[in-house]
Write a structure and sequence with these properties.
Elements (H helix, E strand, L loop, with lengths): L1 H27 L11 H12 L7 H4 L7 H10 L5 E9 L2 E11 L5 E3 L1 H4 L10 E3 L2 E9 L2 E8 L10 H6 L1 E11 L4 E9 L6 E9 L4 E5 L4
């Protein structure tokens, strides 16, 4: 009887050890990261240590298929070159009537090459850098028939708040009009400045008042 009790104790001990080992193995098992928008998680993990950049979540990224392949994403990027966005708004602020026109478009300048290292996050066997285009936005603001602001906004406008990799390889990935703030008397435009085919970038804003004064804001600093 004593021998049977000892055998049962040994069996119970071995079973609990096996269970503990199974739980530990499961908890320590690495979880494969899924690509959020344009390979967000993977790109950030592989590149942030080198560039110290933050992942930006522009509107375009939110619309993309999380299972999108490299060829599909590249085709979508190329297709965006022919897209032109126009937006008009009219605002009455006190005795002033303000009209705003925004145009966001591709420059078709073929002046930017995204290096191979940024394309490697897609898992291509032989990833290559690719030549792409810069984008720009034209903002026109008219106050009571007088044009107070008429400028083309390019990435260079934001150079003062960009780190070196973004100065070299990023584009104005999105441009969104956020409306007119009557409290400050400013039109607000939000941008995503991002390296194409990645989510490495930063959000930034431009605010233009009804006298035509413009200021550039780093959204992370706000």
């Amino acid at each position: 009887m004593k021998n049977i009790a000892i055998a049962l104790i040994i069996i119970m001990f071995l079973g609990s050890c096996g269970e503990k080992q199974t739980r530990n193995t499961a908890s320590n098992k690495p979880v494969a990261a899924t690509r959020d928008s344009v390979n967000k998680k993977k790109a950030v993990d592989q590149q942030n240590a080198k560039t110290n950049l933050k992942a930006d979540t522009g509107d375009k990224a939110d619309d993309e298929n999380p299972t999108q392949s490299f060829k599909e994403a590249l085709a979508e990027t190329v297709a965006s070159y022919n897209e032109v966005e126009n937006l008009d708004d009219a605002v009455v602020d006190g005795s002033d009537t303000l009209h705003m026109h925004l145009k966001y478009y591709c420059l078709h300048d073929s002046s930017l090459t995204v290096p191979e290292e940024y394309m490697a996050v897609w898992g291509e066997k032989d990833p290559k850098g690719f030549i792409t285009n810069n984008f720009a936005s034209k903002i026109v603001i008219v106050k009571n028939k007088d044009t107070v602001f008429n400028k083309i906004i390019t990435k260079k406008v934001f150079n003062g708040i960009l780190e070196e990799p973004l100065k070299k390889y990023a584009i104005l990935y999105t441009c969104n009009y956020e409306g007119y703030d009557k409290a400050t008397g400013e039109f607000i435009f939000d941008y995503s400045i991002t390296i194409p085919m990645t989510d490495l970038g930063v959000p930034a804003s431009i605010k233009v008042d009804k006298k035509g004064h413009c200021r550039v804001l780093d959204q992370y600093a706000n």
